[in-house]
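Hey, I was hoping to borrow your eyes for a little while. There's a protein on my desk that I can't quite get my head around. The fold is given in discrete form, as structure tokens running alongside the sequence. I'd be grateful if you could look everything over and explain what you see. Here's the protein in full, and shout if anything looks odd to you:
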Amino acid sequence: MFPKILATNIALPPYTRSTEDSMPFVDAWLSQHPDDRFREKVRRLFKYAQVDRRYSIMDIDEVFKETSFEEKNTFFSNAFIDLTHEALKGALEKANLLPTDIDYIITVSCTGIMIPSIDAYLINLLKMRQDIVRMPITEMGCAGGTSALIYAYNILKNNPGKKAAIIAFESPTSTFQHQDWDMANMVSAAIFGDGAVCAILGESDELKPAILDGEMYHFYDEIGMMGFHVCNTGLKMILDKSVPEKIETHFHDVLFSFLNKNNLTIEEVEHLIFHPGGKKIVQIVEGLFHELGKNIDETKNVLREYGNMSSATVLYVLDRYLQKDIPAGDYGMMLSFGPGFSAQRLLLQWRK
């Protein structure tokens, strides 16, 4: 039996503002830069980023307050505990499971540092099994959510009857660099938001998406495409402007080789669960899929309503699909890109 995604549950931070309401704070921050043209360019980035709203673990005054790496990471750690606890409890309730029913706990985050990892706190808070297997994942960036599903798939298909919980939490606002005027930091500020989510995997006779296959695709010699540089002020964004074009160039290899291996064509895949990396990536991938008669509407909706929450975002898109009335037999495909540079692919089929 293929492992299924039994339930998902999102957990949102307490602070939220529309992009429009955030602009006075952005303007006050940009006033430190002497170039009028630069300030206007950044304003356009925010205006046309296709992110209407975002959530944050801290009020906007704290986001734009220049504090130390330690102070921002303390916000991160405290919110990490609260939001992942909420996400996991809600997912367990939706799956009608107890905390002690979980055999593997896979936690994902890259926007802060916490040792022991969050799974240790969740085990104590929920009194999960003392022999539960922990797998914390860091340094996978935006690909971390799909990566965690690939790991869980490989574990569960070889361990029938077991269940896994995947919990992703990211706070890109904790990584905001106040004195970094590089465009990567500008783009990051314009598109990213905070959020947490949990997915529960296991066996079920109910109509749920089963994971049929999961693979990664690694681009050679593209280490510098995206990631973080760890500096005295925190985690500084690395984001090469050629990422969208690189994805477009390799799209055929990333998508069709995976489907061919599974004896499928893109025409047979009804549901595309794509990570919304940003406006340009979404536009390129939407164009490629549109030519194939497909859409990524839920990806665009999540980007607009929450922004890019790094590893958690694709699981927010997945959550939308678990709320849909999807008939048995339909295929879905998850796709995300992350540091390395790499692509993660997951093939789903709704089955009883």
Remarks:
- The radius of gyration is 20 Å.
- Residues 69-94 form the longest helix (26 residues).
- The domain at 208-351 is CATH 3.40.47.10 (Peroxisomal Thiolase; Chain A, domain 1).
